[in-house]
Structure formats: C-alpha cells, structure tokens
Design goal:
heterodimer; A: alpha/beta; Rossmann fold; Alpha-Beta Plaits; 2 domains; six-stranded mixed beta sheet; four-stranded antiparallel beta sheet; 10 helices; 31% helix; 29% strand; B: mainly alpha; 9 helices
Chain lengths: 305, 212
C-alpha cells in the first residue's frame, strides 16, 4: 500500500469558465514537508481548499489520509491542522473563547505545548480576534493548528504578516513538529527563503499545471543556469529540450535549462564555447525562471516520473 | 456536538433573550387575564386572544430573524469555513444550528404550556384547559414556528441572491394559507411536517454543496 498522506488525481477546476487548475497530479508522502509554490492567483489556495473539502473540483479527486476530501469524517478532520490564508478565525470572538471552542472541537489537545506557544507569541487572551494585528492572528491560528498535534498540517501562506523573528520562530516550530513524529506538512508560501529552509519536496504551479514536483535537492541539480561565452556571436541554432530561458548579451549567452544532463552538455560542447560556467541558483531564482509568463518555454518534462 | 450547540446558542443569545422576554410577558398577561376573566368573562378572553396573536406573531418574526442571522453571519464571517478545519463536518454544523432553533421554539412554547395548564386549572374549568384543541393548537403553532425558522435559514444562506429571497415570500404565503384553510387539525400538521422536511432537505443541500 502506498503511504501518501495527500493524493491529488487529475484535478481540474474552472472558475467562471476560466481554467485555474488543469489536470494536477500530486502525491505527498508521509513525513514530508512539501512546499507548494506559485504566483498570486495561480491556484495554490484553491488546491488547499479542495483538499480540505471547502471547495469542490470540476473534475478529478483529492484524498487526505486515504479519505476522499468530499467526505472527510470528523475523526479524519481532527487529525488535520490548518492555517488558512488571511487567517479566517471567528472575528467577533474573544481569543479565550476561540481557544475554548477549538479545544472543545479537537480530537487531541496538547495544553502544555499550546501554553508554551501562547507565551512565546505573547497573545492577549482577553482581546477580540478582530482587534488583533495580522501577525497576532497568524500566530494564534498557528498555535491552534499546532495544539491538536496534527498528523497532517496544511499551511496556506502561514507566515504572511509575521515579522522576521516570528517567522523564524514559526519555521523552527514546524521543523520541531516534523521531527517529533512522522508528521507531514503541506506548506504554501510566497516567501521562498522560508520554503527553501524547511521543504523537502517542491511543487511549482504555473498556468494551471504542476510544472515541478520533486525534491529540493533534485530540483537544484536539474535546473542549471549557465553563462556561456563564445568566440563570436552565440549560435542561433542552439536547440535542446528544456530551455527555460535564454538571454544573449554580445558574445555571452545566459541559458537556463531544465533536466540538465550529459547529453545536453555534449550538445552544448559541439558549438565549442570558449567558456561555460555555472551560475548558482537559489530556489527563488529557479522559481522566477520557471514562472516567467512565456509559458511555452516552461519545461514539460520536469515533473518527476 | 454539545460544543457546537452551545456555540450556536451563545451566538444567538440576543434572540434567546428576546424569546424569554416574550414568554414571560405572555405568561404574566395570561395569568393576569385568566384571573380577571374569572370575574368578567368574555371581555378578558378577547383581550387575551388578541394579545396571544400579537405575541405569537412577534415570536414568529424573531425566530425567522434568528434563522436568517445564524446563516448570514456564518456566511459573512466564514464561520463554517473555520469550523470545517476543526473536527467538525458540515452536517454537524447544520444539525447543531437546527437543534438551537428547536430549543428556541421549545423555550417559547413549553413554559407557556406549563403555565397555561396550571393557570387554567386554577381559574377556569379543567375540561377547557386540557381539551384536544389546546394541545393541537400548540403543536401546530410550534410547527409553524419551525417552518418560519427554516425559511429564515434558507433566506440567510442565499440572501446574496435575489430570487431565493423573493421565493421565500410565496412560501410564507402558502404557510399562512394552509393555516387559514385547514385550521389547527391533523391535515395542517401533515402539511407542515412535509413543508419543514422539504425545506430542511433543501437547506442541507445548499449548505453541503456550497463553497465555504
């Protein structure tokens, strides 16, 4: 039996006749921190909402902990912690009342850990949720999601609104949580340095498709940015599969290639460049290269087989 | 489930307080008039009937408003969206909400039935107080209240759209017509139960299939 905590099969979602998600397939193994990346409005939150059963797919199926997202039982829901984008907590409740409600509606509740988080975040219990700052709401939401000791933690842009210290605190907590037991985290964020710090696997959404789904290490090995200098002008007939981006500046050609391998290296060498150096790429650089608007350049074969 | 019901009651506390006030008012006036009617007869009974109609109409308005408020505030504050990320299913949220509505209806009618039974036993002949009509009237009145509550729930959930909102008006009209034609008999009871069942199925369908 496969041990995937999250399974997405051929997920298609249309909004007002516009295709947002176009046949997404994704599996997240147990014990993994999965970073889901994509530009604004690309469908990351939609995927998370469909996974949680808050929205419905046009086609396809999603599974959480081996249960169809459309029919998640209370018990299964009790094993899933969630920090949603915008932190949709009940705004007119006092913090203490919200905590009591969440505690009453949880399968497990780690009082000690929760108290520790509340103290670390310095959250005022006597204030209404709507009177909290965005950062405080994020911290409260995170503390509530962590206190239930979830088997699966779904974080939709959780660090949005947090300051640098709180963000670092959060990331350390996420790592602590994952290290405790075989827990899984699905982590969607715009702050790529955060994702880079914690994620084992990376998925990049672009134009409704999941164009990248592999480990972070593999991604960094596969996508290469090369500075190639030729004796004359760069050749116009340099063709190879997986060119993500290319920029010519005089004799210099800066080439970003997906699925870099020895065959592609051999093709490049036939053009006899005078030098070829690799430019180190961060996750952010790879993300920017992969999500550039000219979608025809996005490598189709970058998804792990 | 208890936590969810408690949450619904706490969130609708204003309506529960209004219902308690109406109930106490009704009981107080009823006791007073029942005592008074033992001397003056028909005049007091007329006043009592008019007052009863006024209180019940007000209650029906309050219970409808409670239904609207529960659903509308859920939608606007994304309460179900948040609750669904906890150990709760949408069915449970809806059941807890309907139970809170039923409790509100019982809170209005049960003390009245108890008070009227006692008062009429003391001041008026027991045959009138415990007649079948008395029981039938209260059952039908409770069902009418439940129907109004269901209409409220439906309006509250679909109030962003105009057509369902307008569709609730003919439903209320049909409800009143049933009462006028059928009176408080078994046929009216049957029709009201059908009406409530149909409305609850419709509300569940809307609630379960909507994006939260």
């Amino acid at each position: 039996m496969d041990d995937y905590v999250i399974k997405i099969e051929n997920l298609v979602k249309y909004f007002d006749g516009r295709c947002i998600l176009d046949g997404i397939n994704l599996n997240v193994p147990r014990g993994c921190i999965y970073g889901l990346l994509g530009r604004n409005g690309i469908g990351k939150t939609t995927i998370i909402r469909i996974l949680l059963g808050l929205d419905f797919p046009t086609r396809g199926q999603t599974f959480l902990l081996d249960n169809d997202s459309r029919n998640l039982t209370s018990k299964i829901r009790g094993k899933i912690g969630c920090v949603s984008e915008g932190h949709n907590l009940v705004q007119n409740y006092k913090v203490s009342r919200l905590i009591k409600l969440c505690k009453g509606l949880s399968l497990k509740w780690n009082d000690e850990f929760f108290e520790h988080l509340i103290e670390a975040f310095r959250l005022p219990l006597d204030r209404k949720v709507k009177d909290l700052s965005m950062g405080m709401r994020a911290q409260l939401n995170l503390a509530l999601a962590m206190a239930i000791e979830p088997e699966l933690l779904i974080l939709d842009d959780p660090t949005l609104g947090l300051d640098t210290v709180a963000r670092r605190q959060f990331l350390e907590l996420a790592i602590e949580l994952i290290q405790k037991e075989e827990r899984t985290i699905l982590f969607s964020s715009h702050i790529l340095s955060d994702v880079e710090r914690v994620a084992d696997r990376i998925g990049i959404l672009s134009a409704g498709k999941l164009i990248v789904d592999c480990t972070q290490e593999e991604l960094k090995n596969r996508v290469k940015k090369l500075r190639i200098i030729f004796t004359g002008n760069p050749p116009a007939d340099l063709y190879m599969t997986g060119i993500v981006n290319q920029k010519v500046d005089g004799r210099e050609l800066v080439l970003t290639v997906a699925n870099w391998n020895s065959e592609k290296k051999a093709i490049l060498e036939t053009f006899q460049p005078s030098s070829c150096t690799e430019i180190p790429m961060t996750l952010e650089d790879i993300f920017i290269e992969c999500t550039k608007p000219n979608v025809e350049l996005v490598p189709a074969g970058m998804q792990e087989k | 489930m208890f936590t969810l019901i408690k949450r619904e009651i706490q969130d609708s506390m204003m309506y529960f307080l209004l219902i308690i006030i109406l109930t106490l008012l009704f009981i107080f006036v009823d006791v007073f008039l029942a005592y008074y009617s033992s001397d003056t007869g028909e005049v007091a009974i007329d006043i009592n009937n008019n007052f009863t109609i006024f209180v019940i109409s007000t209650f029906l308005f309050v219970i409808t408003a409670m239904g609207v408020s529960q659903m509308h505030s859920d939608r606007s504050r994304k309460i179900s969206s948040f609750l669904s990320t906890l150990m709760v299913t949408r069915d449970k949220i809806l059941i807890a909400r309907v139970i809170a509505g039923i409790l509100a209806i019982l809170l209005f009618f049960l003390p009245q039935i108890a008070a009227i039974s006692v008062v009429y036993n003391l001041f008026i002949t027991p045959t009138f107080a415990f007649g079948n009509m008395f029981i039938e009237v209260y059952i039908i009145a409770s069902l009418v209240a439940m129907s109004c509550y269901c209409i409220g729930l439906h309006i509250g959930w679909t109030s962003q759209r105009q057509i369902p909102l307008l569709a609730a008006l003919p439903c209320a009209f049909v409800l009143i017509t049933i009462m006028c034609i059928k009176g408080f008999g078994i046929q009216a009871l049957f029709l009201l139960v059908l009406f409530i069942a149909a409305y609850l199925i419709r509300i569940r369908d809307n609630f379960i299939t909507s994006s939260l």
